[in-house]
Specification:
The chain is α+β, with helices and mostly antiparallel strands. It has 8 helices and 11 strands. The chain is elongated, with a radius of gyration of 34 Å.
């Protein structure tokens, strides 16, 4: 019995000693930063009189907290951040079987066309309106494993991944002369830069200079439904057929300025560079999801409806049709006449 009492006494003494050492350590740790802060304070001098300065109504404070500004990351409404599903999103095949096959697709190479064999050649500029029923896949608003399924979001992802180089469309330039960066493309969707004084959240008498984007000139996501194509139609005398080669694609935004809709071409993309990206993205099929085609197959097979806005046929002033004909119905009629001229030229080469 005495033996157990001795063990119990030793255990109680050791516990008391541990608690005492822990208390001394906590006291030393708490006292050390206070002493350092006390030593770092500069000694107060009585020779310097206290100066009283009136508070200014407008002061630029560099040390003030950041003022909340507009969130410009999603002004365009195209969120490129894709989230991978944690479970298999398909019922009849594994998660990576079909999707992996789409990601490995490559476009078929073009036929070799020689300039010496080009018996006929003209340039056409056409526009695809996503509001038409046949062109609705261009504005399909849904999220898939690859992100936003709208065609313009696909173009933005290709630019962000540096899979294609955007070119400036300023001044109506469509010859791919001035490349621009992805930051410049992003700024187009945010509007114009603007600065203004914003009241500080901590001190109402202090105003901080804040740089924001004027979102009035930013295109609405629903307004980017038009895509302009630059094409070259070539009749090859070696194969006796007409070829249509797409050279460039440009998204066109519709801005409402002074209650008047105005179209603005954002940028141009070189289509031969974009073909690889388009071959890895599928088009929405409203009739059957299992029989979808890629965007590259859609453009090459011309599964879309378009109208001509400009051509190199009898266009001495190099103007768009809307600059020549004010009546929209007349513009459509003239565009169909241009299309009929190209069709007739191909048919006239044949002898029945």
């Amino acid at each position: 019995m005495k033996k157990y009492q001795l063990y119990f006494g030793l255990a109680l003494a050791s516990m008391l000693w541990i608690n005492l050492a822990q208390a001394q350590f906590n006291y030393a740790a708490k006292k050390k930063p206070a002493t350092a802060a006390k030593d770092s304070v500069a000694p107060k001098t009585d020779n310097t009189p206290a100066a009283v300065t009136p508070a200014a109504p407008v002061v630029t404070n560099p040390n003030a907290k950041s003022v909340k500004t507009y969130d410009t990351t999603l002004v365009g409404g195209f969120n490129d951040k894709k989230q991978k599903p944690q479970r298999n999103n398909y019922a009849f095949f594994s998660e990576n079987s079909k999707r992996k096959g789409v990601q490995e697709k490559i476009p078929l190479p073009y036929e070799n066309l020689r300039e010496e064999d080009a018996l006929f050649s003209e340039f056409l500029w056409e526009e695809i309106d996503g509001r038409e029923k046949l062109n609705r896949p261009f504005t399909y608003q849904a999220y898939d494993d690859n992100g936003d399924q709208r065609f313009f979001a696909l173009l933005l992802r290709a630019i962000d991944k540096q899979e294609v180089v955007p070119f400036s469309a300023a001044g109506g330039d469509d010859r791919f002369t001035q490349p621009i960066s992805s930051d410049e493309v992003s700024s187009m969707l945010k509007g114009s830069l603007d600065t203004q004084l914003v009241q500080n959240v901590d001190n109402p008498n202090i105003y901080d200079t804040s740089i924001i984007y004027n979102t009035k000139l930013a295109p609405n996501p629903d307004s980017i439904y038009t895509f302009r194509l630059k094409e070259q139609w070539i009749f090859d005398k070696k194969t006796s057929r007409m070829y249509c080669r797409i050279i460039g694609i440009a998204p066109v935004a519709t801005l409402v300025i002074n209650n008047k809709p105005t179209k603005r071409t954002l940028f141009w993309l070189y289509y031969p560079e974009l073909r690889t990206t388009l071959a890895k993205a599928e088009v929405y099929n409203p009739k059957n999801i299992s029989s979808r085609i890629t965007w590259e197959e859609l453009f090459e097979s011309r599964y879309f409806n378009s109208y001509i806005v400009k051509s190199s046929i009898d266009n001495f002033n190099d103007k768009l049709l809307n600059a020549i004909y004010k009546d929209p119905i007349r513009r459509l009629q003239e565009g169909e006449k241009i299309r009929q001229k190209i069709f007739d030229y191909e048919q006239d080469r044949w002898v029945y």
